[in-house]
Amino acid sequence: MHGASIIVDALVAVGTLLVAAAAIWGDWLRSRLAPAKLTIETHNLIGHPTVFSSADAESGDSGTRAMFFHLKVLNRRPWTAAKNCRVLLKAMTRRGPDGRFYPVPMSIPTQFVWAPAEITPPLVTIVKENIFDLGFISETEDKFIPRLFWYPHNFQGFVGRDEAVRYHLEIEATNFSSSRYQVFEVAWDGEFDHEPARMEPHLRITEIKGL
Predict the structure, then answer these.
(1) The dihedral of CA 125, 130, 131, 134: what is its sign?
(2) Most buried residue among 13, 58, 109, 128 by CB atoms closer than 10 A?
(3) pLDDT along the chain (211 residues), means of 10
(4) Rounded distance, CA 182 to CA 178, Å?
(5) What is the largest CA-CA distance in the chain?
(6) Residues ≥6 apart with Cβ < 8 Å to 148
(7) What is the distance between the alpha carbons of residues 127 and 210, in angstroms, rounded to a whole number?
(8) DSSP string, the chain
(9) Distance between CA 22 and CA 178 in Å, rounded?
(10) What is the 3-state secondary structure (H, E, C) of 115-132?
């Protein structure tokens, strides 16, 4: 009987230690045994209409109409949150006159903007998914503009009339390391419409796999 009591006490002690270890090292263990598994998925390919507010609103100017396009980062292991996550533009290729795509010079990578941009910080924790702005077109611009936190002075990643650019994206997080880029092509024929269904044929966003 005395021996059985010792065994029970030992098991209780071991259990207490395991609970304490899980409380202290649980996140670290999960990040090693089952790290976050992140991927970029399509979210809104036909466009989301909005209006840029005008500084001259009192004069009756209602602002500039624009169409935003979004992608999202999906965490396929939601039990392990991805911390300090961001999406980087690491490379670009542009369609040439022969239909092939050629590298576009980039000085350094730059980061996409999480949505909504007004309230979302540059680095986020992703449990299930987070949406980011791929880019937008406004009625006063003649190009698709990728939505980045900043643009190098020689940035060549805009998409003009009858052009196509492929954006090579990479996810970074504290407990996630991407093994490859994901590539999304934006092709535009130069037409703008503030109605998503009518805009869809004019701007196409396609994930290019196998690169």
Answers:
(1) positive
(2) 109
(3) 59 54 49 76 92 60 88 95 96 97 93 94 96 96 95 93 98 89 97 95 94 71
(4) 10
(5) 91
(6) 89, 110, 111, 112, 113
(7) 27
(8) -HHHHHHHHHHHHHHHHHHHHHHHHHHHHHHHHS---EEEEEEEEEEEEEEEPPTTGGGT---EEEEEEEEEEEES-TTSPEEEEEEEEEEEEEE-TTS-EEE---SS-EEBEESSTTT--SSEEESSEEEEEEEEEETT-SSBEE-BS---TT----B-TTEEEEEEEEEEETTEE-SS-EEEEEEE-S---SSHHHHTTTEEEEEE---
(9) 27
(10) CCCCCCCCCEEECCEEEE
- Residue whose tokens read 């980045």: 148
Query: In one letter, which amino acid is 177?
Result: S
First to last CA, the chain: 68
Cβ atoms of 118 and 133 within 8 Å: the answer is no
Structure tokens at 139: 């009625």
